[in-house]
Amino acid sequence: MKNTLLVSMAFIVTGCVSTSHVLPMGKDTFSISATADGFRDAASARNKAFNKATEQCTTMGKNFMFVNESIMPTRMGIDTTITLTFRCLTDNDPLYTRPNIQHSPDVIIENRNR
Q1: pLDDT by residue (tens digit) across 27-67?
Q2: CA angle 43, 48, 53 (to 5 degrees)
Q3: What is the pTM of this model?
Q4: Is the Cβ–Cβ distance between 4 and 12 less than 8 Å?
């Protein structure tokens, strides 16, 4: 009984990261989401999403290429969900280049004084 309680407590404290299935978004383009519960940090969800995406491309015999990611607090801000969009491309695909990573602004200010 004591061992069962210790194992249960260890599982609760360590938390978990769950991932969605890899979803096709179009030609060679996919999306995956990973959610870290309140006991894990966003970095662990991000790491899991990138690992699953790379695994998907490797299974296809292609290379992983980052496209975009979003980070959203979920479940009243307790959990964090990372959604990753990526491509699986061959070495000779013209789109397989160094990614141009640009962060989207959180706020866009429009100037209406023209």
Answers
A1: 999 999 999 887 777 888 899 999 999 999 999 999 999 99
A2: 125
A3: 0.73
A4: no
